[in-house]
Amino acid sequence: MNAISGKERNFAGLPAAVIWGYAATLIFMVGDGLEHGWLSPYLIEQGLTVQQSATLFTAYGAVLAVASYFSGVLTEAWGPRKVMLAGLLIWLVGQILFIEFGLKQQNYGWMLPTYAIRGFGYPLFCYSFLVWVTYRSPERIMATAVGLFWAAWSGGLYVVGSYFPAYMLPKIGYIGLMWSAVVWVVIGGIIGLLVVKDEGIQRKGNSKEKLKSLLSGLTICVVKPKVAIGGIVRIINSTGIGALPIFFPLYLSSEYGFTTEQWLQVWGTMWVANIAFNLVIPYISDRWLGWRNTIMWIGSFGCGVMTLVMLYTPQIFGGSFLAMTLVGIFFGIVLCGFVPLTALVTSMAPDQKGSAMAVVSFGAGMSYFIAPAIVGAFIGMIGVHGVMWIFAGLYFLGAVLMKFMTLPDEEKQNENRYFTEKQTS
């Protein structure tokens, strides 16, 4: 199913439709990410507590996790286009209700459910496209193809989604930014729906097969425990980085005088570096280091170290914008070490890629539930320092878990080596 027809136009081995799909992902995620870097500080300035803000993002993350899980199996059941359309429409409904009845009226009772509804949007739209990418891309460049997706995803969510509000905030204000997000999402959604087709995926036909497909994301974790481990590592991947905008800009502002615009520039520069190395690190992983070692050492261990570096840098350099920017650059680089995780997990279940992707996508969604939950539960007890150490510890745990993520070929090689040594001894 991964084969690409010789008649199909392609770029660097990838179909042209996939390349356009990356563009659609980037544009869609700009709209989805315009508020991520400033919404929590803004709401707290308007009277919400840190715990209320964390609860808002926790509810959003819970819905996002459910949508992330269903994105993979629904794509195999119904095809990517229908799932992407559903994601687009639900996002628009949630966004409009959130602006009109939540933000404008400063009504927390409306904010909570409408922002949560919005959480269905990008997983259904983007992750269903990612499943299609794993089916349409040759195995030899799978990590690179996935890396391009995450480059587009993070480029929209974090790079343009940070620099655009940093520039436009003084001009159109917070509410104006939220309405501009609608324009970005509609444009990206239209492009995606035009270029993505349903070919390449064998869809389950009857209701019984579709139900089995929906449950397969759960059963595969029992049948193939390494897929479950990969899902846990995926949760860890985004947990620390996803929590930072909730509390860290407030810490930098209150303790070291950073402005919202400065934080958005640091945050955006971090993801510029991430995009640049999102192509380099997967190439190194495919050609030399290997998927597992890349995730273990560059991704997990590297992010654990950089979480602590980010915590202690302002204590050493004070309110130095340059120092924080450099830390952000290195954090963005090591975060690329997680890119091969999708390729690694799907290789554990080559005949159930949609189900394996459901687990990976669910892990990505769960991180946006767990991250704010940790902040809300612990920020009052152990403060910023304690919370940052929790996230660093999770990254180090991810490095340990990767020891168990051996590919079938590696296990066979280890068995052959064991028997050879035994015979020669």
TrEMBL record:
PANTHER family found in the cross-reference section: GH10249P
Alphabetical list of InterPro entries matching this protein: MFS, MFS_dom, MFS_trans_sf, MFS_Vesicular_Transporter, Polyol_permease-like
Any single Gene Ontology cellular-component annotation: plasma membrane
Protein name: MFS transporter
TM region positions: 12-30, 50-71, 83-103, 115-135, 147-166, 172-196, 232-252, 264-284, 296-315, 321-345, 357-382, 388-407
Primary localization class, coarse: membrane
Membrane topology type: Multi-pass membrane protein
Organism this protein belongs to: Domibacillus antri
Keyword annotations: Membrane, Transmembrane, Transmembrane helix, Transport
Molecular functions (GO terms): transmembrane transporter activity
UniProt cross-references to CDD domains, sorted A to Z: MFS_CsbX (cd17337)
Domain Major facilitator superfamily (MFS) profile intervals: 9-410
PROSITE patterns hit by this protein: MFS (PS50850)
Transmembrane as UniProt keyword: yes
Localization in the cell: Cell membrane
Pfam families hit by this protein: MFS_1 (PF07690)
